[in-house]
Design goal:
It comes from Aliivibrio fischeri (strain ATCC 700601 / ES114). By secondary structure, the chain is mainly beta. Helix content is 10%, strand content 55%. Strands 1, 2, 3, 4, 5, 6, 7, 8, 9, 10, 11, 12 and 13 form a 13-stranded antiparallel β-sheet that branches. The chain starts with 5 loop residues before the first helix and ends with a strand.
Amino acid sequence: MKKCTTRSLFTLVGLSIFSGTVLAEDKQDDVQDMSDPLAVYTQAGAGYTDKGLNLKIGQTYDTGSDITMGMNIIEIKGIAGEAVGWNGDARANNDDSIDSIRFRNFSVDLTNGRGAQVDVDWNFDRNQGSASYSFIQALPKMGPVSLYPLAGLGLAAGESYDVGDQGAAQAQDRYDLHGSFYVAGLYSKIEITDKIWINYNPMYLGTISGSDEYKNNAYGVDNDAMLTHEAAISYQITKRSNIRYFANWNEDTHFADGDHRIEFNYQF
């Protein structure tokens, strides 16, 4: 699979922003709580990361029901990483093409605080991707703490790898469905003030079925499961805009060696 060009993706993002702005014109007074992981609203965001620039577009749509809301989100990651990314470590493999693209479809039931998410991700550097379906449930708020447990199932696919005589995985000139996996985790929010909040979102992923190579090495050599971490601190600038700092790491990657980004978000 060829990498997407930066020019074509910027064109797509520009059209999406224009479309989202037009559709949101009739809802200028309907401002959602941007600190709520289950909030649904038309939005745009841009991030400066250690691996380049990220762009995000989210657009609500009519679900056909008065008690549910829906939103599609597209994220484009790692734009111009070699030129502007601050991670100079050779292991980062920064270049000026797109690293990955992510699509999410999100819906929430307003009567019971239950959400559902389709999450599709493709990494152009590794030619690997996944698609999953998860349920999210908002629990009763406990003082400044809000918890949102998540559980789901998914499929992994991409360029095929075969283990040769030397025990090393060799890329093959074909793509296949590697196998299935589960994900169980938690979104959490801690309110510090009415404008500052902290999120911590641990996720545990593990293989269910598939080839032996996938089941045994999906999350690292001889590793069929992994605990991942995401932490963020956010500041609400206005009712429609905020700035956020994110860090992502896992049990095999130290916090300092993980992914870091500063992100600006605007609600239309």
